[in-house]
Structure formats: structure tokens, C-alpha cells
Amino acid sequence: MRIDKYLWCVRQYKTRNMATIACKKGQVKVNGDTVKPSREIYVSDKIELRKNQINYSLTVLDVPPSRVGAKLVDIYRVDTTPKSAFEAQEFLKFAKEHYRKKGTGRPTKKDRRDLDDIHKENENNL
After folding, report:
1. Each residue of 16-54: b (16+ CB within 10 Å) or e?
2. What are phi and psi of 110, to 5 degrees?
3. What CATH number did the domain enclosing 45 receive?
4. Nearest residue to 41 via CA among 29, 26, 56
5. What is the mean pLDDT of the chain?
6. How far apart (Å, rounded) are the C-alpha atoms in residues 23 and 34?
7. N or C end of the chain, less CB within 10 A?
8. Using one digit for the tens of pLDDT, what is the confidence trace for 64-100?
């Protein structure tokens, strides 16, 4: 099965076109190599993909015949993404939502200082 179809079948992407675009942009790797959307995948392949600023790691257990329901996804893949990848996402989400509304222009000098303060606090907490 093609890698773009597989990622769509196991519900990593909402549409097959989105999976194809991600492959073309170089956001999908199989066994450490950047792949084209037409690359065939096999059982025990390691897939790494970058989506929403998170690096996901998957292992192929089986190839589904077609798109599967959300409850059946774990039959076909194992998610080996480390928990630390999701913790970094929480900080980015907070910084985006709290300070800047979309379309309000460049940040002011005060906004930049406030963002720097939050960043320093977060580094101190780690």
C-alpha cells in the first residue's frame, strides 16, 4: 500500500490529498528516509511524520484493506511518539492564544518583552 493511502487509512490525515502534500513537502520519513507519496510500506516499517509542530513516530503492524474506524486504528499501527513532544505543543498553544489575535499586525515592543518573559519563566521551570 502507498504511504499516503496508509496515513489516510489509519486516520493520521483527514484526506488523502493532505497526506500526499505532507509527503511532497518532506514531512514524512520511512525508516529514516524522506519518501514520495507513492512509496510502498510494509509491516514493521518505522514512520516519522511532522504534523502541527509535533514529530510523530509510528510503527506499521499491518496494512488495512481500506480506511478504518477510529477504534480499529491500533490494530494497524503503534504510536511510539514520546510524551515530551506534546508538552512543547502546550507552551506554543498558550503563547499563541494568550497574546496575539490573528490579523492584528506586528507585535509591539511591549508584546515582544512579555513573550520573552514567558519564555524565560518556562525555561526556568524545566
Report:
1. beebbebbeeeebbbeeeebebebebeeebebbbeeeee
2. -65, -40
3. 3.10.290.10
4. 29
5. 85
6. 8
7. C
8. 999 999 899 999 999 888 887 777 665 555 555 566 5
Label residue 57 by pLDDT band (50, 70, 90).
very high
Please count the structural domains in the chain. 2
Q: Residue 122 corresponds to which cell in the numbers above?
A: 518556562
Which residue range forms the structural domain that includes residue 52? 3-81
Regarding whether 20 and 71 lie in a shared domain, the answer is yes
Q: How far apart are CA 64 and CA 84, in angstroms?
A: 29
| Pair (94, 33) in one structural domain | no
Whose CA is closest to 77, among 24, 124, 12? 12
Top mean-pLDDT range of 7-16, 83-92, 114-123: 7-16
- Gyration radius from the chain CA atoms: 18
Task: For the full predicted model, state whether its pTM sits above 0.70.
Answer: no
Residues 69 and 30 in one domain: yes
